[in-house]
Amino acid sequence: RADGSNFMPRIVDAFNKGHQNQIKLDIIPNAEIIPKYGAAAAGGTAPDALSLDLIYTPSFAAAGQLEDITDWAKSLPYFASLSPAHV
Predict the structure, then answer these.
(1) Within its chain, how far is the Cα of 58 from the centroid?
(2) Which pLDDT tens digit goes with each residue over 6-47?
(3) Residue 10 Cα distances to 13, 46, 53, angstroms
(4) What is the C-alpha to C-alpha distance for residues 18 and 25, in angstroms, rounded to an integer?
(5) Is residue 14 part of a domain?
(6) N or C: which end of the chain has fewer CB within 10 A?
(7) How many domains does the chain have?
(8) How do residues 37-79 score in pLDDT, each as one tens digit?
(9) Are the beta carbons of 31 and 12 closer than 8 angstroms?
(10) pTM of the predicted model as reported, rounded to 2 decimal places
(11) Residue 78 lies in a domain
(12) What is the 3-state composition of the chain as percent helix, strand, coil, each rounded to the nearest 5?
């Protein structure tokens, strides 16, 4: 989502330089993110990753449009240092 910063393109560029699998970054204006994601999820073309405001998370989760990655996250060696509010 477009949050007024430019850090995400730099992160994606750095990742893409060092990895065979490439990330395609689409920055969507904040006012468009919910309808675009909702339509993409309903059509089976949801993105692999998404910056989503936490107020929408329960609705998308209840609709089965988010994947639970809790077990994967818990396997990370630094899991205990992650913010519980963001896990």
Answers:
(1) 15
(2) 888 999 999 999 999 999 998 888 889 889 988 998 899 989
(3) 5, 23, 21
(4) 16
(5) yes
(6) C
(7) 1
(8) 889 988 999 898 888 888 888 988 998 888 888 899 999 999 9
(9) no
(10) 0.65
(11) yes
(12) 50, 0, 50
Cα–Cα distance, 36 to 13 (Å, whole number)? 24
Angle, alpha carbons 73-78-80 (nearest 5°): 80
Q: Which two tokens stand for residue 5?
A: 């910063």
7, exposed or middle or buried, with CB in 10 Å at 0-12, 13-18, 19+? exposed
In a domain, 2, yes or no: no
Nearest to 51 by CA among 62, 60, 42: 60
> 2 has which bridge partners?
29
Question: Rounded CA gap, 47 and 16, in Å?
Answer: 17
Question: How many CB atoms are located within 10 Å of the residue 58 CB?
Answer: 10
- Asked if the structure places residue 35 within a domain, the reply is yes
Instruction: Provide the domain limits for residue 19.
Output: 7-86
Instruction: Fill in the amino acid letter for 14.
Output: A
